[in-house]
Write a structure and sequence with these properties.
The structure holds two protein chains of two kinds. By secondary structure, chain A is an all-alpha fold. Chain A is built from 15 helices and two strands. Chain B is an all-alpha fold. Residues 270-279 of chain B have low confidence and may be disordered. Classes of the chains: A mainly alpha, B mainly alpha. The interface between A and B is large, with 94 and 93 residues.
Chain lengths: 289, 279
């Protein structure tokens, strides 16, 4: 073993920084989180071991279930809307009928450049019940004003719009890079055989994008479960918009319940692990891995 | 004739949709800039908000009185630039090792690196705070730089790109007596410049917009990045901060990075995501 390491010293040395950082800032914190989750700890002094009490508390904590529900809403809405919009925009950008491709490609990426925090503040004014542009426009069309930010019924909509608006461009770029790899003659042959655009999309484009779409849904899932900025800056009334990760942060650093926060962290890890396994299994059944 | 007509209709529809989407992307940003230069006397509500009769810089002046803008901007620039440079160096170095060396355990280690992306480090925020406190990096900008000088995504991206560099280039350099590190600096880095440029813009944007980590690690105003300061604007004077001042703040955050992005985009032939993911 020692001999191999000596022989291959340089490549091991080149990849070493990643593994050291992974150990210190990812692996150890996660194992430590599991440990803290079995304790009561307010950040000072020694953690008191309390067994499964934090997890028992989770089961009866309404706030936790609300945050979990909110996160699922953000996850599903983000996954569906972002993938649909990204596919649509990427298909348009890839069409040879389009003039000014470079311009449109550059400009439609702009939302991803803008910070969620800053855009969230803008959205607060945008969706304001009395002063907001959105309601003014609704009224001009003869509809009534909607309390976007102050009613539990509507308050998640601005968060979802912000999330979709900001993140679609990133996935558009990834999908576009996949579209560029599909040989043009596939489409030419299909056109000759009289296949409609929609059929071409279903039978050529989507199957060819298999791996790319899989990659997109995996990254979108991880990003959704750690959604923080959007719901933090557009909180809605009370806790109606709080995401699970945000609830973890607030339990740990606002109310200093580090043990409880850690148990939420563990739940998050377990949920992500389960979803990842399911995603991989589905992909495997499609025979692609 | 029929085919031509159909193509025209299709092309028209395509352009209408993309122009509509472009407007959705750009209008919120332009609207923000308009409000940021509105004097306090003008109305910001509804359709009145788009008319600016006498543009003013007063909102920005007010902002400079309220928060240490220069100090916070320096903090943001420092972490974004240093974070990007270190990350580019270490990610391409590791990507190079994975792409061009065969060493025992290479594939397993590479899949392991990709697998680490599935567990976000954010879930370990509680112990991470403790670790940072122990090594004395709370309230230090280095807490934002050090943990991310080699990221899994970056290594994956660089690996995809370096894989396509011809082996002959490396062999030739080896025959000329170049050491491994020298090959990386003299051969690989110049060849992958386009990839470095696009990954640099992606990282720079992400670091500039970073919010959660600075919120967690930086606990006093002089150390805040611009993003954290801006997020606190609505509450920093009770609830009375005027909207134009808040939007002047967001303008300060958004406009520089948008301009930088547009500049980088015009200089860059390869495009932002060229070669990022291969199907």
């Amino acid at each position: 073993m020692l001999k191999t390491i000596k022989k291959y010293k340089m490549p091991y040395l080149f990849i070493l920084p990643f593994f050291v950082l992974f150990l210190v800032f990812q692996l150890i914190p996660i194992i430590w989180t599991v440990y803290i989750s079995f304790t009561q700890w307010r950040g000072i002094g020694d953690p008191q071991f309390i067994g499964l009490d934090n997890y028992k508390k989770i089961l009866i904590d309404n706030m936790f279930w609300e945050a979990l529900k909110n996160t699922v809403v953000y996850w599903v809405s983000g996954l569906v809307l972002i993938l649909i919009f990204a596919l649509l925009i990427a298909t348009i950008l890839n069409s040879d009928l389009l003039k000014g491709r470079v311009f449109f490609k550059t400009v439609t990426f702009l939302p991803n450049v803008c910070a969620a925090i800053a855009m969230g503040l803008i959205f607060r004014l945008f969706f304001d019940e009395n002063a907001g542009l959105i309601n003014e426009a609704l009224q001009a069309f003869g509809l009534s004003r909607v309390p976007w930010l102050t009613s539990t019924q509507f308050s998640k909509i601005p968060v979802i719009i912000l999330n979709v608006w900001r993140n679609t461009p990133w996935f558009t770029m990834i999908i576009l890079s996949g579209l560029l790899n599909i040989p043009r003659d596939y489409y030419e042959a299909a056109t000759m055989d009289g296949a409609s655009k929609w059929k071409q999309f279903c039978y050529i484009t989507l199957p060819s994008l298999g791996n790319i779409l899989f990659f997109c849904s995996v990254t979108l899932t991880v990003d959704s479960w750690k959604l923080f900025n959007e719901s933090y800056i557009l909180p809605g009334p009370g806790t109606s918009n709080t995401s699970l990760f945000q609830y973890m942060y607030e339990s740990g650093f606002n109310t200093f319940n580090m043990g409880y926060a850690s148990s939420i962290g563990v739940v998050l890890i377990v949920i992500l692990a389960i979803i990842s396994v399911i995603q991989l299994a589905v992909r495997r059944r499609q025979g692609e891995i | 004739m029929g085919v031509k007509k159909k193509r025209f209709a299709e092309s028209a529809l395509l352009h209408i949709v993309i122009v509509f989407i472009t407007l959705l992307c750009v209008l919120p940003i332009l609207w923000m800039c308009l409000i940021a230069v509105k004097p306090a006397s003008e109305s910001i509500s509804g359709f009145h908000s788009v008319l600016v009769e006498s543009p003013t810089m007063a909102n920005f002046e007010r902002l400079f009185e309220m928060i240490p803008v220069l100090q916070n901007t320096f903090n943001s620039v420092f972490t974004a630039i240093l974070g990007t440079v270190t990350s580019l160096f270490f990610c391409s170095l590791a990507g190079f090792a994975f792409a061009k060396y065969s060493f025992p355990g290479r594939n397993v280690l590479f899949y392991f690196v990709i697998g680490t992306m599935l567990v976000p480090p954010e879930v370990g925020a509680v112990p991470l705070f403790v670790i940072m406190k122990k090594i004395g990096l709370i309230n230090s900008l280095w807490s934002l730089i050090i943990p991310r000088i080699a990221t899994a995504v970056g290594i994956f991206y660089m690996h995809q790109y370096i894989k396509d560099v011809p082996d002959e280039l490396i062999e030739a350099a080896k025959i000329d007596g170049c050491g491994d590190f020298k090959i990386f600096l003299r051969i690989i880095i110049p060849v992958i410049k386009p990839a470095l440029a696009s990954w640099a813009s992606v990282t720079l944007i992400a670091r500039w917009n970073d919010f959660f980590w600075p919120l967690l690690y930086l606990r006093k105003q002089a150390k805040y990045t611009l993003m954290v300061t801006i997020s606190l604007l609505p509450v920093s004077e009770g609830l009375s901060t005027p909207w134009p001042v808040i939007l002047a703040g967001t303008t300060l955050v958004i406009v520089p990075i948008v301009v930088l992005y547009l500049l980088l985009q015009t200089f860059q032939k390869a495009g932002l995501m060229a070669g990022a993911v291969k199907g």
